Amino acid sequence: MEKVSILHLITAAKNASPFDVNMAFDAGFDKIMPYTHVEMNEVAGLVQDAIFSRGPSGVKRESVFIGGRDIDVAMDMLNTAKKAMVPPFEVSVFADPSGAFTTAAGMMAKVEQHLTKNFGCDLTGRRVSVFGATGPVGGCTAVIAAKYGAEVQMVSHRSMVDVQAKVDSYNTRYGLNIVAVDGASDAAKIEVLESTDIALCAAAAGVQVLSLAQIAHAKDLKVVADVNAVPPSGAEGVDVFADGVAIAGTNAFGIGAIAIGHVKYKTQHHLLKLMLESDNKQYLDFLSAFEMARNIL
């Protein structure tokens, strides 16, 4: 008799995300076990408790999901979990803190899709500006874009110190050349946009970071993508349902939160099913999510 499938959900946060729990059940896992307030030094022990309890055949029906709210912590937990495996006792591990990895993947896959469709190009050499850069989605999109050949700048809305710290961390961790730029005033945003091909809006819900007037100044702007589904939109003129819709009075095309969220949902679902069904162990992060999102599209 086949053992039930179990997803061990590890998070440093107070609560496991109900969204992730629902997604795991919908992907086919029989049981989901959350572990909350988990500290880094506890990850290896939890993973080894899981892998040694069922034998080499039973362990094939287990996986680990890493949640939380900090992308660096999630990546460190993913790497710690991977190092804790003792072949043949191994399970797949998927990190997606606050859904940021799959959301960023969905955003960048849609951007790439509409770059190809409307301009015949991909991310290589494109100038990308990330607004709402200090959040987890902003950070992931910046790294994905840079990894795939874009020239990326993370835009400061309030504190250059905070953005520069994120930039330094990502450049060191991933071997990139992202830069921090000032966008605290209307004039500064216009200056940023005038040298931008792709504007990514990943600010907090209900915060509008770009106005239509600011976007209209950017003659080279090709795509504006916004993950904010709570009014007002993060980028004025980009409807939440927009999926490559021309932005009035500009040369750019808009991608809204619902279009991005549709790809995000499918990406997370497929990655969860991949862990459940694959014979090969998977270690899945935001780059894995981007590749899955591209395949879905």
Molecular structure report:
- Strand 3, helix 4 and strand 4 form a beta-alpha-beta unit.
- The protein has a 7-stranded mixed beta sheet, with helices on both faces. A 5-stranded parallel beta sheet has the order 2-1-3-4-12, with helices on both faces.
- The protein folds into 2 domains: 6-95, Methylene-tetrahydromethanopterin dehydrogenase, N-terminal domain (Rossmann fold, 3-Layer(aba) Sandwich); 100-260, NAD(P)-binding Rossmann-like Domain (Rossmann fold, 3-Layer(aba) Sandwich), CATH 3.40.50.
- Helix content is 44%, strand content 17%.
- It is built from 11 helices and 12 strands.
- With 297 residues, it is α/β, with parallel strands linked by helices.
- The longest helix is centred in the last third of the chain and has 21 residues, at 257-277.
- 49% of the residues are buried.
- The chain is elongated.
CATH topology tier name of the largest domain: Rossmann fold
Strand order of the largest sheet: 7-6-5-8-9-11-10
Report low-confidence residues grouped into runs of 5 or more: none
Q: What Rg, in angstroms, do the CA atoms define?
A: 20 Å
| Average pLDDT metric | 95
Judging from the principal axes of the Cα atoms, what is the shape? elongated
Number of domains: 2
**Order of helical and strand elements:** EHEHHEHEHEHEHEHEHEEEHEH
* CATH second-level architecture of the largest domain: 3-Layer(aba) Sandwich
Beginning-to-end CA distance, first to last residue: 38 Å
Total number of beta strands: 12
Largest sheet: 7 strands, mixed
What percent of residues are in strands?
15-25%
* Class of secondary structure makeup: alpha/beta
Q: In CATH's first tier, which class of the largest domain applies? A: Alpha Beta
CATH superfamily grouping of the largest domain: NAD(P)-binding Rossmann-like Domain
Per DSSP, the total helix count is 11
As a percent range, the share of helical residues equals 40-55%
